[in-house]
Structures are given as C-alpha cells and as structure tokens.
Amino acid sequence: MPRIGVFVCWCGSNIGGVLDCPAIAQEAASFPGVVFSTEYKYVCSDPGQKLIVDAIKEHRLERVVVASCSPRLHEETFRQVLRRSGLNPYFLEMANLREHCSWVHPDTPEQAQRKAVDLVRRAAAKAARLEPLFPGKIPVVRRCLVIGGGIAGIQTALDVADAGLEVLLVEREPTIGGNMVKLDKTFPTLDCSACISTPKMVAAAQHPNIKLYTYAQVEEITGYIGNFKARIRQKARFVDHAKCTGCGTCWTKCPVSVPDDFNLGLGERGAIHIPFPQAVPNKPVIDLAHCRRSTRGKCGACAKLCPAGAIDYEQKDEFIEAEVGAIVVATGYGLFPWEKVYGEYGYGRFPDVITGLMFERMVNASGPTSGKIQRPSSGKEPRTVVFIQCVGSRDEARGKEYCSRFCCMYTAKHAHQVLEKIPGSEVYVFYIDVRTFGKGYEEFYRRVQDEGAVYIRGRVSKVYQDGSKLIVKGADTLLGEQVEIAADMVVLATGAVPAAGAADVARMIGIPQDKDGFFQEAHPKLRPVETHTGGVFLAGTCQGPKDIPDTVSQASGAAAKVCGLLLKDELETNPLVSRVNEALCTGCLACQPVCPYRAIQPVTITERLPGQPPRERVVARVNEGLCQGCGACTVACRAGAIDLKGFTNKQLLAEVDALCL
Amino acid sequence: MSVNERDVGTTTEGAAWEPKIVAFLCNWCSYAGADLAGVSRVKYPANVRIIRVPCSSRVNPQFILRAFERGADGVLVAGCHPGDCHYVTGNYFTRRRLTLFKRLLEYVGFEPERLKVRWVSASEGQRFAETVKEMVDGIKHLGPQKRIARL
Known about the structure:
The structure holds 2 protein chains of 2 kinds. By secondary structure, chain A is α/β, with parallel strands linked by helices. Chain A contains 18 helices and 34 strands. Chain A has a 5-stranded parallel sheet. Chain A has a 5-stranded parallel sheet with strand order 20-27-21-22-23. In chain A, α6 (109-128) packs antiparallel against α18 (649-659), α7 runs parallel beside α16 and α13 runs parallel beside α14. Chain B is 36% helix and 15% strand. Chain B has a 4-stranded parallel sheet with strand order 2-1-3-4, sandwiched between helices.
C-alpha cells in the first residue's frame, strides 16, 4: 500500500464554515494507506502548496489527496505541485468538498460532514490504486492540409504558409475562389468581390509554401493529430498543365455549347473550358461528359489547335499520398434546393424567378450578361423586381430552422444595385425580420430604403405567370392587408446549406455534423474553430452560415491554431487513454465499432507460450494518438481486456466500495 | 481488494435511515453541472456521493451492481445530453446499455427505480439538484435496498 497524504482545505469559510475540517483530517488519518493528514486554510495558496511539498519530503508520501474544490478548477495546480516535488503528477486525487458538499448542504451540516468524510475516503481509495502515467511524445509533421479553396481555405493557407509551414490546398473545382469569387459587389462597402478575392487567389497559387491541387479531392484520411496521411485524387483534366500556356485558343474554338455551371446555367461554355476569365490556375479542363470526341468519337478540335500540344485525351486520374500534421476543413456552403419544396414560387418553372447567387452572376461585369440586369426569359431589362427573403431559412416546415445570416444584407445590396443600374425601377422586398448585425450593416439597410426600396413585412403566398409578368401575391402583416405586385423578375434569397458532399468529408475524417449537416465545432463559444478530433480544424461556412468578414476571421483563427500545433517539435499525448491487455484480448473486436475516434485497430501478434510452438493471433490495439480516453470500449470488452488509464476498473470499484461503507 | 464488509445503508432503522446514492457523473457535462449547482448554491439532499468518470459510457453495469451489492440504495448515472457528448457518441452507448441493464434488473425482480440515467449538461445545475431531490424522495418511498445488498 503506497503512503498517502491527505490535505483538507478550509477554502476560508467556503468549506470551513460548514464542515469541521480538522475532524475530517483526523478521520482521514485512519483510512487505509494514509500516513499523514492535515488541514489548512487555503491549500491552493503559495504556503498551502509548500505544505504539500514539505509533507511529501518529510513523510515520504507517494500519493496525495487534496480535499478542496472541484478538480475541474485546481487539478492542474496540484499536479504541478507533485511534479515540483518529484512525484508523478498523476499520483494526485481530489475530493470535491466545496462544490459538491459545503456549498450545497449548508443547512444539514451533520449529513454534510458524513458526506465529506465519505468523499475523502473515496479519494484515498482511488489514490491508493493510482498508477504513474506518462504523456507520450509524438513527432509532428510540419505540413497542413486545407480542404476547400474558397476564401476560408485560401485565407487559412496563406496565414499558415506565411508562418513558414507547408500547406497543401485542395479544391475540387477547376479553380480556387469558391462562392466568393462568383459574387459581384460585397456589402456594405460595395467593393467588388473579384477585386479583393482574385489577388488572394493569385497569392495562394504563387506562395512558395503552398502546393495547390485544383480539380482534386481528398479521398482518404488516416492517422492522428500531428501524423495524418492523406490520399488525394487529382482528377484527369485531359490537359497537361505543365505544357498549357493558357492561351485560350481551345476554349474559344470548342464546338460544344452547354449551360455554364459556374454561372448557374445563365450562360454557356464549351466542353473544354475555364470557369471564368480570372480563374486560378488559368488553364482549362475538358468536361468529358460533354466533349464531342468522347460522346460521338470524333472532333479533336482542341488537340489540333493547341499550339503547345497540351491536350491529352488519355490522361488518367492520379493519386498523391501526403503526410500532414494538421487538417483544416473549409468546404463551404451550397444553396438550399428551393425548387424541390417551394411550389408557391413555381418549383423553378418560371425562368424569371432566380436565386440571389444567379443575380450576383448577372450583375457581375465578368458574368454572362456582362453586368446587365436582364430577365432570363426575354433578355429585357426588368422595371419591377421583387425580392423574397428567407427562402429555405427560418422555415421549420419546409426549409431550415436557422437563419442563413447573409441573405438580408445581400438582398439589400441587390435592391441597391437594381435601383442604381435601372433608373425609375421599382424594388419590393418581402421579409420576416431584417437582420443587420455587422459593422455598417444597419446604415447600409437604411440607405437602401432611402434610395426607394420598399420593404414589406410578410410572406409571399404565390408567384404565377400572367403574360409576360410575374404576379406576386403576399401579405403585408404590418398593415394587415393583401399585396399584389406585377413583377418582371423575382429574386429569392436562398438560404445556405452545407456544401454537397459534406457528409462524406465528415465520415472520411471522423468529425461530427450538427443536425443541419454543418460540421460541429468543439465548443460553440470557446473552441469555435476546433473539432473534437485532435488536429482537425474548421474554417468558414462549413461550420455554419456566416458572411465574408466572419469567414475570414475564423479562417485566420484556424490558421493560428494550426501554427500553435505545428510549430511544436513534439506533441504531448494525453496519458489517460485505453490500453489493451493482449494476454486477455480474444480479438473479437467488439470494441472497434464503439470507438468514436477509430483508435482501435486489429494487429496480429506472435504469441509464445511455454511448451507450445509460437502462434499468431489477432488482438485489438489502441492508437494512443487517436484515443481521447472516453472509456466506451472498456465496457464493450467481453474479456475485460481493455482498461482506461486513470479510470481503471480497479480504481472505480474501489471508489464504489469506499462510498458504500 | 480490501473491502470492509460493514453495512450501514440497510441496518439503521426508522426515521434515522437516510438513503445512500452513488452517482457516476461524466466529467464534461454532469460533473460540471453538479459543480454549477455548487457555484449557484442550489441546495439538494446530502445523500448523493459522486464518482467522476470521463464519459457516462465508461460506466460498466458491473460498477452499478457493485454499488447495490455494497448497500447503495440508488445509483445515478448522468451524462451529456444525446448529441452533445464530448466524445461524440459515448452517451448513445450509455443509453442503450443501461436501458437493457435496467430491464434486466426489473426481470430479476429488482426495483428499476433505484437506477436512474439522466442527461445533465454543464449549464444545468438546477436540473442536477432536482434530479437528486427526485431520486432521494423516490428511494425514501421504496425504503432500504436489500435485494442485492449483502446483509
């Protein structure tokens, strides 16, 4: 039995005012293994800590029980005291006499006293069974993987790269830039989105520490914090980017014409194409599904015309294996599929009912209409434009319960752009509430109203085609009357949802999603860029809808976390992890599916028993870098072969016994 | 393991008898919730004795049986609310395992009310106090636990 010392703290009158601390200390002296027991006014104070240090030396203490406040408050403080005294810091056990006793039972001091003694007995029983624990050291790969090349991913990549660390930036589209680069002007300052985002795209592409993979996808992640392995699929572009000069001959001469996905179907592009003129990299890919050579077996115009001989129809997907120490997920958002549920807006049947993002492409000078606002049906300039807010957001019945946060502001900006570009036009905005939370947002909203935008509080009940007009019927709930507007164009403020494929990313990396499919942060307030998986961080709208300033802030926050992790030489691992007794393990692997961190893997060991030939068998092994120490596996183990360090079966049973005396 | 076989919970009689409840609280939610009850000075009966575990999924039904065997009158297991587990999915395992275990207790003729599984978040000090009160009242009504306890 190790030599245990017990230190009962008065915490001034917090504990001492209710409990008789000297009596507790006296009783504790009789517990098994306790060789020293004392009380002090404030054990956490400097003289209090010295008391422990001296007692450890004088009484050759091997385990320490501090009966004071919650271990959540001072466990680390007292562990440091043990470390200073040359003891293993995990030889400490605390009894919570303040939060769990004196503060909650001041009216029944006798019962509280009995409880306090029980709590100290429990702590002493556990202390007697504590084992020395040592945090492991694992090396760190000083390279960061950023998944998603939108503004969040670009910002994170730039910040991490500027700190001198290598970055792999992987984007599944042919260009980086994400949704932001599709936008025209940004609220509330009206600076053009391309003017502020394309320089960042170029900076990311040219940065010596950033390796850019566009038209590529991360397919597999294995490993753990500091030591991940990523498998990246570089999709075949059918254009050799090493040879291509980006001259543009091919995409201007391609005979195919298909709806342009970058412009959300508002314009057309060839099969060989670049998404937009400022794309990074500014080199094309061939969309094989529409390429005439692929669909009809003949054409080859691009290959004939390419002066660099860069076209390669036989190109295959390539795979890149990379080791990284940290992962930042920045997969962004998509638009709520409104066509599927909003029958009152025509299920997408009316060409002049468009989404906010389509409006952005339309009003963008580099967009399909060169910045001219026009009705998709006729190409004519609209005179009356109706904006409908909260399409998919704040609609529990058919859409999402949450607010998408940026729609109020982009609609205000759209209203401003219509009024500015089309003199004499009329703008109506149907809204539920207008949310202008950011810096300069409320001012901008007022300015748009002063410019003539009419805000109507209420929902639209129906939009239907009447000749060339769209009739919008709705309610003005402030005036309590029905409203009917003959509009030329209707713009829907479509809410944000997680980007397509977010669930696959979550599964691949092993991070949870919230009820709406956004990635779950480790703590909504205090750990907003971390996930529960060590070494995996979040940036931007993949964590929840947010506007550009918030996205960029979060991206820089994630970068700071990555630097904090990767600039260390080694990582200390949490020693409170599961361990498998291989002699007892039967290799049934019932523990494996229980582990939320995929920390348990089967391994084949060679067993040598006396008098028998060596034989191979499968046992479970815990990867200590991945294990977070929940202990769920220990209960799943039929053989009792898995135990959790720091919370062993033996310790917990001893605690139960001590409390039930 | 050195265990004192003295038994208190079931031997005292009449009005003096106070139930003894062992509570397994997860470190991240329920233990913090009990701490919050303290910080907010929410009073509750002193019958509960708390054991800290990292996650409610660490609680082996064996521990619960052991508590009853040693004379505990009630056992409380508390963890994060479903969906909020610090370890992502731990409390789902707790929920399934202990639902099954409770049915087993009932099947063998043990009062299932003596085992409670509750979700208490770190911000629910009041809820923790109410859970303890509710449990103490319920168990006072049931009387001392004698079925599993070694007498």
